[in-house]
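Lecture notes, part 5. Sequence design as translation. It can be helpful to think of inverse folding as translation between two languages: the language of shapes and the language of residues. The source text, in structure tokens, appears below.
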């Protein structure tokens, strides 16, 4: 019988974190289960830092709030944790067994892991160490395997679409090309869907290496029919044919996490288009605006459904799975299936050949729709 559970939120923040937490707590309380939250993701699990969650106080009034009331960590890989020794030397240690001891000592029957590809990879690894885990798919990039949609994605697309609406009027007023860079390291879902919703003329995504000449030609063809402006959406991970992704810098976040900071893809496209078309071009980087703030109604409902389903799975004793939405219905899949070929313990970095990241495929309906209505994809 499940009597005591804990939640951790991990990875980049999204709108919907709190709605999931609220749904788990309320469902748990309905069945007499105590609910707690680890502070700061997997780091909180390592430090055994947690709080009691209750719909009467700590988890009250949070449905519409962005962020996470239990915080989140983006670089805490406890299987390769960065430790600074007394002499100042840096060492990487596998501290996952400390987390296992904490869970057992605290008496938690299940840990809910709210996060993306890397978060669920670590969840799978903990399941191999005997911890009952249930994942909930989170990421604005919408790239978690085995589910149709992640919570947080719809809000990000809505924010990007609003930005495009605003940029469109400026582009038309001043006869300019307005480039909007959106998030999407390996997957172009945000760029593609917001481009369709926002009436963009060009959308460049990581899955389709672009030919900038093709994008410029599409804009020139608009000029020929009297439209002397254009709106372009670029995923941060988009890159030209034969070229590389745009990197703004690197961080030392430890082994097994993504340490490359992307940046500059939109600016590169803007500079190239201005040179090729002769039109004044400006680039706007939407950045963290996509992550924060109030979740859309869709994300509130989706997050609530995911949270309630996750707690129900725990009550049914169905552990070591990811809560998913398939063909419009709630379901679950094993974390082994989510991980795919990324089997090595502690190897959590996404976007590798072994990672089972969900990307845009050439036959996806969004790609077909974009082409049908004349959006240039740079190929």
């Amino acid at each position: 019988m499940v009597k005591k559970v804990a939640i951790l939120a991990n990875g980049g923040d999204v709108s919907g974190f709190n709605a999931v937490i609220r749904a788990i707590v309320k469902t748990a309380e309905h069945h007499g289960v105590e609910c707690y939250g680890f502070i700061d993701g997997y780091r909180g699990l390592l430090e055994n830092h947690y709080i009691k969650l209750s719909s009467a106080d700590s988890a009250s009034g949070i449905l519409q709030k962005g962020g996470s009331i239990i915080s989140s960590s983006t670089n805490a890989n406890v299987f390769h944790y960065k430790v600074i020794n007394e002499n100042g030397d840096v060492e990487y240690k596998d501290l996952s067994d400390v987390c296992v001891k904490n869970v057992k000592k605290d008496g938690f029957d299940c840990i809910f892991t709210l996060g993306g590809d890397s978060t669920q990879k670590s969840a799978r690894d903990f399941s191999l160490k005997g911890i009952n885990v249930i994942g909930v798919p989170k990421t604005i990039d919408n790239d978690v395997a085995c589910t149709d949609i992640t919570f947080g994605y719809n809000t990000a697309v809505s924010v990007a679409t609003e930005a495009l609406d605003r940029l469109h009027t400026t582009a038309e007023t001043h006869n300019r090309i307005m480039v909007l860079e959106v998030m999407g390291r390996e997957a172009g879902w945000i760029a593609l869907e917001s481009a369709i919703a926002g009436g963009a003329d060009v959308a460049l995504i990581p899955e389709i290496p672009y030919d900038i000449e093709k994008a410029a030609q599409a804009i020139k063809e608009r000029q020929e029919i009297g439209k002397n402006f254009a709106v372009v959406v670029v995923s941060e991970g988009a890159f030209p044919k034969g070229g590389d992704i745009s990197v703004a810098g690197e961080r030392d976040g430890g082994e097994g996490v993504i340490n490359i900071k992307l940046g500059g893809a939109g600016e590169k496209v803007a500079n190239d288009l201005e040179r090729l078309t002769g039109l004044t071009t400006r680039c706007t980087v939407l950045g963290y605006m996509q992550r924060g703030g109030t979740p859309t109604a869709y994300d509130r409902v989706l997050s609530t459904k995911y949270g309630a389903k996750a707690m129900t799975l725990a009550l049914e004793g169905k552990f070591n799975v990811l809560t998913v939405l398939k063909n419009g219905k709630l379901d679950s899949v094993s974390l082994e299936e989510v991980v795919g070929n990324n089997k090595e313990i502690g190897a959590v970095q996404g976007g590798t050949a072994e990672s089972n990241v969900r990307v845009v495929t050439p036959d996806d309906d969004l790609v077909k729709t974009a082409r049908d209505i004349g959006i240039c994809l740079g190929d």
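The translated text above is only one of many valid answers, since several sequences can fold into similar shapes. The longest helix spans residues 153-174.
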